[in-house]
Write a structure and sequence with these properties.
The protein is mainly alpha-helical. The protein contains 18 helices and no strands.
Length: 396
């Protein structure tokens, strides 16, 4: 009897250990996806920080060679608006995971988590770069609270309604006259960013942020942007509730079908960009995720790409770190090379920064469980150092 009981306990232990290993691999793959998305964001942000705000979403400034034009086309076709949706999806997954914890004060903790994210975003937008995304995530994250308790099928219906509305708005827009661009392109923008003091650049950043988000020449674009980001966050919440990532990892045929479907969608968005442009970035971002999930099934590929997880585990710290370094490199209060090089040469800076931060992240994580800003985020969420340390030690 005792022998049978011991064998049963050993079997359960092996099963639990196997489940723990699988869950650890899933977490590592998610971190790898974050690390990959960070590279894409850095590739887009580098020329964006070196471009006046009014041009940012339509073209990059200071293209002086054929290589600059080629790099710009590659970025706009393969990276622009593709990687923030990945983070929005992961944000929705993370929000659902956080809210699923059975704690009496979970809503309060979640709101504190968003408040910290918003504060960091404000400092980042005004002191580093006007194109901050953290404020958007924190504000939209509040609305996720209202839908977390919904059944997955109802969430999916809402997502469908949101994207149907976006499609109709985009269709109406495509039939009307083009909106004027550059309404806040001041003549001194170049001089301020290239030669201005930290105070001068900060004031310009504040103006650019307010005008880009609230005084856009086509305010409907801003509305679509927020609506689309929220729809993607809801999609992430639905993915978590339905355990879609688990199903994809366990079902290669399903993964292949999704990849084929997204390839077709990407071909359609390439052929008719003016009509269905709101879906272009999302469809490509999802395609990148699924391809990454597919190729990492190969052990050699997984081993080769695994280091990306170091940057992914410190995604907030590295996102802020990248942009801080770029602002110091480009703007007048730093090296002041704003406008002195085109996008092609800027890619050298981007890849150098990425791999430098990759090494620093690996070194940091060999001594600490979380990055500096990730630790502060948990500290702000749980209220004091003792609780934050306890959550860190339990990896929650």
């Amino acid at each position: 009897m005792c022998l049978a009981k011991n064998l049963l306990n050993q079997k359960r232990a092996r099963k639990n250990n196997s489940m723990h290993i699988l869950e650890s691999q899933r977490i590592a793959i998610l971190d790898m996806i974050r690390g990959f998305a960070l590279l894409g964001i850095l590739i887009v942000n580098t020329p964006s920080l070196n471009t006046p705000a009014h041009m940012d979403t339509s073209d990059f400034a200071f293209q002086v060679s054929s290589a600059d034009h080629v790099v710009t086309k590659i970025i706009f076709n393969g990276a622009m608006d593709c990687f923030y949706p990945i983070f929005a999806l992961l944000f929705g997954i993370g929000a659902a995971l956080f809210l699923s914890k059975e704690r009496p004060s979970i809503t309060k903790l979640y709101l504190r988590r968003l408040l910290f994210l918003c504060i960091i975003g404000i400092f980042h937008a005004f002191l580093v770069w006007w194109g901050d995304i953290l404020i958007v995530y924190s504000v939209l994250g509040i609305f996720l609270l209202f839908f977390y308790s919904w059944q997955p099928k109802n969430i999916l219906k809402l997502i469908g309604s949101i994207f149907a509305a976006i499609y109709l708005i985009a269709l109406v827009q495509s039939l009307g006259p083009a909106g004027a661009l550059g309404i806040f392109a001041g003549p001194d923008t170049f001089l301020i960013y290239s030669q201005g003091s930290f105070y001068d650049v900060t004031i310009q950043r504040m103006h650019d942020w307010v005008r880009a988000f609230f005084l856009n020449a086509k305010p409907i674009d801003t509305f679509i942007y927020f609506l689309r980001m929220f729809g993607i966050m809801l999609l992430g919440m639905w993915v978590h509730k339905q355990k879609i990532l688990h199903k994809l990892e366990e079902n290669s045929k399903l993964l292949g079908l999704f990849i084929l479907f997204l390839l077709i969608i990407n071909i359609i968005t390439s052929l008719f960009p003016e009509i269905i442009w709101p879906f272009r970035g999302l469809s490509r971002g999802l395609l990148y995720i699924l391809i990454l999930l597919g190729i990492t099934k190969n052990k050699l590929v997984y081993k080769f790409l695994a280091p990306l997880a170091y940057n992914g585990r410190m995604s907030m710290t590295n996102y802020l770190g990248f942009n801080i370094c770029l602002s110091i490199i480009f703007y007048g209060y730093g090296l002041g090379i704003y406008g002195s090089m085109g996008p092609a040469r800027q890619m050298i800076i981007a890849f150098m920064l990425y791999f430098i931060f990759l090494g620093l992240s690996a070194l940091w994580l060999s001594h600490f469980r979380f990055g500096p800003f990730e630790y502060l985020w948990r500290l702000a969420t749980y209220g004091d150092i003792v609780k934050a340390e306890r959550k860190i030690l339990t990896n929650s």
